[in-house]
Amino acid sequence: MKFAIIHHGRCNIVSLDYRITKTGLLEEHLPESKSKKKTECIEILLDGDYEHVLPTKEQIRTLKNILSKIIAEYPKIKIGGHRNIKGSKTNCPGNAFPLNHIRIWANSELEKELDKKTYRLIEKQYRP
């Protein structure tokens, strides 16, 4: 998997993997069997329009939780907004969406995940 793409609620996404409601509820939209056939990107939609307002704290918390799991499975994944897709003519997920904050957080999360894997390898080798 190469990309995790974030969308706002006004986007019409056909191959949506996850939807996060305003209350932070995570809904899986593609069954895992179909989702695993996708090789390029994971699509995550947050209900709302983030042109002028921020997502709710609950939405950001849920987004970070699902991204943590995605990063653990696909450590080289890049996180972006719909507007970052080459050739797209949209501002999705909106100017107010904290995409840079999410990217910075994701990089630190990746470091933590790599540290955990390294620790487990060391523990496995030196455990009595």
Report on this structure.
The chain is α/β, with parallel strands linked by helices and 128 residues long. It has one domain (3-126): Peptidoglycan recognition protein-like (Lysozyme-like), CATH 3.40.80. 38% of the residues lie in helices and 17% in strands. The protein contains 3 helices and 5 strands; from the N terminus they run βββαβαβα. It has helices spanning 32-35, 57-73, 99-126, and strands at 3-8, 18-20, 26-28, 41-46, 78-81. The chain has a 5-stranded mixed β-sheet with strand order 3-2-4-1-5, covered by helices on one side. Helix 2 (57-73) packs across helix 3 (99-126). It is elongated.
Brief descriptors of the model:
128 residues; alpha/beta; Lysozyme-like; five-stranded mixed β-sheet; 3 helices; 17% strand; elongated
How would you sum up this structure in a few lines?
The chain is an alpha/beta fold and 128 residues long. The chain has 3 helices and 5 strands. The protein has one domain: Lysozyme-like (3-Layer(aba) Sandwich), CATH 3.40.80.10.
